[in-house]
Amino acid sequence: MINTKRPPRDTLIPGTIFLIIYTIWAILVSSGSQFIHNFDNIIINIICNSNTANIKFATIFTNLGNTNVIVIETIILFIILLVFKQYAYAFYTAGTMAAANGYNWIIKHAIERHRPFVHHLVYASGYSFPSGHSVGSATLFGILIVLTILLVKSKTFKSILIIFWTCFPLLIGYTRVYTHVHYPSDVLGGWIEGITFVLIGYSFLYHFYLEPKWKTIYQS
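That's the Phospholipid phosphatase sequence above. Prediction below.
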């Protein structure tokens, strides 16, 4: 039986809204806003402690968001999609990840925010805003959420996967603050940036692949 169900609608408008929010957030960070300073202090006081178990978890789990790990995971996902002949989804994945991480590099060097001036629990180099771990994980797992919505038929399994994919970038962001290598505003900025690229990337996928495919099936 041919699936004639219309795909999720275009996300250009929410993507644009997230882009505006991200731009405002980046301006506040780069200008040294007192609001950002207060926000960072409040979240740090809530999250950070000297619990041994938390330290061990954070210092280990944070490595799962390293750039090389995210790149390997992206390549594996890309290859799997190609093997199953999901070419549009494969290039949506690769293009969105490349755009998000490339843009992240540009913003980091444009703002040049230094990392927290405290002892880091893990090694970290480069500038602080936005958090590359947060951008990479939010983008990759945001893509996985989109693919899950599009490809998984079982509602129960779909819900479980979406919850799992959502938890991963949240935990990665938590570890970046806990290990003192990022401010909370870096992490939030990274999440917003990642979501922005996922939404805008899906908009291209929708207009150039999903909608034309649906119209062809529906009209046949």
